[in-house]
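Re: the request from the purification team.
They wanted to know what the chain is likely to look like in 3D before they choose a buffer screen. I agreed to run a prediction and write the result into the notebook, where they can find it.
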Amino acid sequence: MKLYLGSDVSKGYADWVILSEKKQAVLDNFQLDDTYAGHCKLYSILEAYFEKHPGSEMYAAVESTGGYENNWFSTLKSYQKVFNLKVARINPSGVNFNRRAGMKRNVTDAISALSIAEYMINHPENISFDQDDKWKTLCRHWNFVEMQKAQRTQTINQLETILYCANPILIRLKKDNLPNWLLELIIKCPTADKLAKAKPEKLSKIPYLTLARAKTLVAEAKQNIASATDKNAEILVSQIARQIKAFDQNIKSQMRLIEQELICPEIEILKSFNGINTISAIGLLLEIETIERFPTVKGFSCYFGLHPKFKQSGDKVIGVRMSKQGSKNMRKILFNIAKGAITYNPLIRAVYEKKLSQGMSKMAAIGVCMHKILRIIYGMLKNKQAFNPLIDKQNYEKSKSKQQEKQLQESVNTKKSRRYQVFDAAAPISRKQTKKRKEHDLSQCEITSQSTGSACSSLTKL
C-alpha cells in the first residue's frame, strides 16, 4: 500500500494531509507548529499509521518556499531511519498548474497540502525522492554574498549622487567599477574644498595614485563648482565611501571561506573552459548542485530557462525567445561567462559572429552563446572531462545527421496525420500553408528518388 503525505509549509507552521493511491483521504487535513512539540507529534502520527498499515510505503513532499520548508524537510529525512519513507522537495510551479488543471479555484493552506499530495500521485516521473541537499549551506552563503554585492551597487549609486554635488572632479575618474585608490581618495578628501587644500605628496602615498595625477587633481579642485562643501556633506561622503570599502572587504573574506569549503574536481573541470574562472565555477556548481539531477541536456537547459519559448498556432509562430524561467542567478553567471568567452574563447566567438551575420541582435546572440555554454557545461560535468573543442565539432557533425533524421520523421508524421486524406488543392489555406505543402511534396519526391533511383513526376507540377 502506498500513502502520500502532502505538506504546505507556512512561516511557523504547516498543513498536512495523507492520501491513498486513489486520492482518497487516509487522514484529513491537520496543522502542526514548527516547534519541537509539533515535530514530535508528526512522528507519533506517522508511527500510528505505519503500525496500522504494516508493509506500506509513504511518499512525502514539501514545496520549495524560500527556506521555511527546511526544518520539516530535514525532520522527514531523519524519520527515514525508522519508517519506509521517501522525501522530496518539489517545485511550486508544477503543483500550481496541476491544481489549476483540476479546476480548483480557491487557494487555502489545506487545499495546497492536498494539491501537493495529488501532484505526487499524478506526476511521479517529475519528482526525485531522497536527494541529498548537497552544499545547501554553501548555497545560502553564496546568496548572502550576492546580496552584499547588490547592496554595494546601491551604495555606489547613492555615493555618485552625493559626490556630484560635493566633489564632481572625482566622478569622471569612476569607470565601470570603483577602484580602491579612488575609494581611499574619497575617504581622505570627500569634498572639493578638502581636496583643494590637500598636499599632492601626501595623496601620492595612496597605492596606484601617482604624484603627477595628485597634482592635477588638486589643481582642478581649486577651480571647483561644487555646491555641497559643508561639514555635513564631508561626513556623509566619507561614511558612504567607508561603507563601500567594508562591503569590499566582507565580500572578499566570504568568498575565501566558500572557496575553502567547496573543494571538488568539478571546479577544475569547469575552469578548463576559457571564460570560466574560480568564482564562476563555484556559482555554477552551487546552482546545479549535482548533474545527476538532469537526465538530458534539454531538461538541463529548460530548468535554468535558457531554452527557446514559443507558441505555434496554425501558420503562426509567436514569441520565439528565451523563456527566462528558473534561477536568475544562473543566467546572470552565464551572461558574464558568455561576455568573457566571446573575447577569449574562439568557439564561442565563432558562434557569436555567425549569429550577428545572420541579422540577430547582440543581446540575442549572447543568449545563444549562453545556451551553447550551458550545453558544453552539461557535457563536461556528465562525462567528467575537461573542455575539448574537438568533441564539440564531433557533436556538431552528429547533430547534422540528427537534424536530417528529424526532418524525415516530421515528413513521416505529416504523412501519418494525413493518412485519411491527401492534401487537397481546393482547400482554402493561407500562402504559408501552401508553401509548406509544396515543400513537403518536394521532400517526399527527394526521398522517393533516393530510395528508387527514379525521377519524381511531381517536380514538374511544382
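For the purification team: The mean pLDDT is 85.
Please add any questions underneath this entry.
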